[in-house]
Write a structure and sequence with these properties.
The protein has about 80 residues and is α+β, with helices and mostly antiparallel strands. It is about 30% helix and about 20% strand. The protein is extended, with a radius of gyration of 16 Å.
Length: about 80
C-alpha cells in the first residue's frame, strides 16, 4: 500500500458512537466527529447508517482541509 500524500487507500477505523432510542427511532452521534449524526428505525439500521455518515464526514473533511496547516495554541484559564 502506498502511503504518499494524495494516494488513495483505505484505512479501517473504529469510532465510539452514542445511540439513543426516541419515539422516532434511534439517533446515533459520533462524539469525536462534531456534527456527525445519523438515525434509523431500528438500532441495527441506525448503526449501518452512521457508517455512511462517517465516511462522508471524513471525505468532506479531507477535501475541505487540503493544504491546511496544523498549529498549536496555548490558552490559560
Amino acid at each position: 500500500m502506498d502511503n504518499a500524500i494524495g494516494s488513495w487507500y483505505t484505512l479501517d477505523m473504529k469510532y465510539p458512537v452514542l445511540i439513543h432510542k426516541s419515539k422516532f427511532g434511534y439517533d446515533v452521534h459520533v462524539p469525536s466527529l462534531p456534527g456527525c449524526h445519523s438515525q434509523g428505525d431500528t438500532e441495527k439500521e441506525a448503526l449501518e447508517n452512521i457508517k455512511g455518515a462517517i465516511a462522508v464526514y471524513l471525505q468532506t473533511d479531507t477535501e475541505f482541509l487540503r493544504g491546511a496547516r496544523m498549529r498549536e495554541v496555548e490558552v490559560a484559564v
